[in-house]
Design goal:
Length: 408
């Protein structure tokens, strides 16, 4: 076997010149996550391990509890030869918060220790905070593995917090070897912040399992009459999601016959505020909390709604279109490029626009059928999870071995 050389000059015996699969050691780093970033990292870790990579996930213990990184099954025996940990995923706790926090210096020190122990060929951080901690941890190492940072969210905060986040954005952009943006506006922001190499890398939503229950059974559980429209949204309860707009619009639907039932699946810091708003406005909205049965909820839904202030490639929007559920969404970030003409787009923060769009679709079954057909067709044009993995692996190989990666 001909040994490959890594950037550090050390032999890499996980592949050969004849074309054997390269089985890298990859460190995936993420901060606190209860939604799309965690789901993406879990899917990426699973797929990398299935191809024989040795994957170390570094992040908060609570994020591991939600996504079960340490429970990802090892790869089959035929791909786990070579390095002892090839084809496996292990989790190492590093408490990285989503905002500036006094524990940041401890997180940098902890990650530095973890990387020294794991000796990865590539470090791939997901999100701004994880990218910042990974960049600072890497500076202190004598032999630095290449750093890839995927940006999933834009900086929306203002004031001192916004200023600190924009400073972090510049540090991350300039310290990463490659910055991947989940939407075109994130790629542009990275370039403006000083990234030497910023590329578009659309994040594919992990495929949902088939529904396990019937439409009637799900609606019965939710207390939705058979003839009542069910309007669904799924996501973290956070101001970015704009759920206050949805609640305000839903309050106007109380007098519709039959009255729509609006359900929000997810948890997060906005729960108490949203619950109070729902109660005060008597809006027909139910907060379901975290759910693991999104496939079932989509199968029971008549309409999906996304009211976010900003999104890259919103995972629930992808899930809804794949399921053929008509979608009303805000025209922000990467959503217009994602959905094309397969969804009804409305301005962010516009209660009147959300109200009108939902009413029109609820009143027009044929329009819902047209959007359902467009949704499935549009979803068929998106990069698959396998293509997402291929692009990421191409970047890894380019950085480690100097081979051309896949540029968007």
């Amino acid at each position: 076997m001909t040994q490959l050389q890594s950037r550090s000059g050390e032999p890499d015996d996980t592949g050969d010149a004849a074309g054997s699969p390269w089985r890298p050691r990859v460190a995936l780093v993420l901060a606190t996550s209860a939604g799309g970033i965690g789901a993406h990292v879990a899917d990426l870790a699973r797929r990398l391990a299935a191809e024989g990579a040795a994957v170390t996930v570094c992040g908060p213990a609570a994020t591991n509890e939600r996504f079960g990184f340490d429970a990802i099954a090892p790869a089959p025996p035929h791909v786990s030869h070579g390095a002892a940990d090839a084809g496996r995923v292990r989790f190492l706790p590093v408490e990285i918060s989503v905002g500036t926090h006094p524990s940041d210096t401890r997180a940098v020190a902890a990650l530095r220790r973890m990387l020294a122990h794991a000796q990865p060929d590539v470090v791939h951080a997901h999100g701004l905070r994880a990218g910042l901690v990974a960049g600072l941890a890497r500076r202190a190492r004598a032999a630095r593995a290449p750093l890839v940072v995927t940006l999933h969210n834009a900086v929306l905060a203002r004031g001192l917090r916004g200023g600190a986040s924009r400073l972090a954005e510049r540090i991350v952009a300039r310290s990463a070897d490659v910055v991947l943006g989940a939407s075109a506006d994130l790629v542009a922001r990275a370039g403006e912040a000083g990234a030497a190499d910023a590329r578009l890398a659309p994040v594919a939503a992990p495929p949902l399992p088939p529904p396990r229950r019937t439409r009637a059974a799900v609606r019965a559980e939710l207390g939705v009459p058979a003839d009542a429209p069910l309007v669904l949204t799924v996501g973290r309860l956070h101001p970015q999601k704009g759920y206050d707009v949805l609640v305000s619009a839903a309050a106007r639907w109380r007098d519709r016959q039959p009255r729509p039932a609006v359900v929000i699946a997810g948890d997060g810091p906005s729960y108490l505020g949203l619950a109070a708003r729902i109660s005060a406005s008597r809006a027909p909205v139910t907060l379901l909390g975290h759910r693991d049965d999104v496939s079932d909820l989509l199968a029971a839904a008549d309409l999906a709604v996304v009211t976010s202030v900003w999104e890259a490639r919103q995972l629930f929007a992808q899930e809804a279109l794949r399921a053929g559920v008509p979608l009303v969404a805000t025209a922000v970030g990467g959503i217009p490029d994602l959905v094309g003409d397969a969804a009804v787009l409305v301005p962010s923060g516009d209660v009147d626009a959300v109200d009108r769009a939902v009413r029109r679709l609820l009143d027009d079954p044929q329009a819902r059928e047209r959007y359902a057909a467009r949704a499935r067709a549009r979803a068929g044009t998106w990069p698959t999870a396998e293509q997402t993995l291929a692009q990421v692996r191409g970047v890894y190989e380019e950085l480690v071995h100097g081979q051309p990666g896949e540029r968007a």
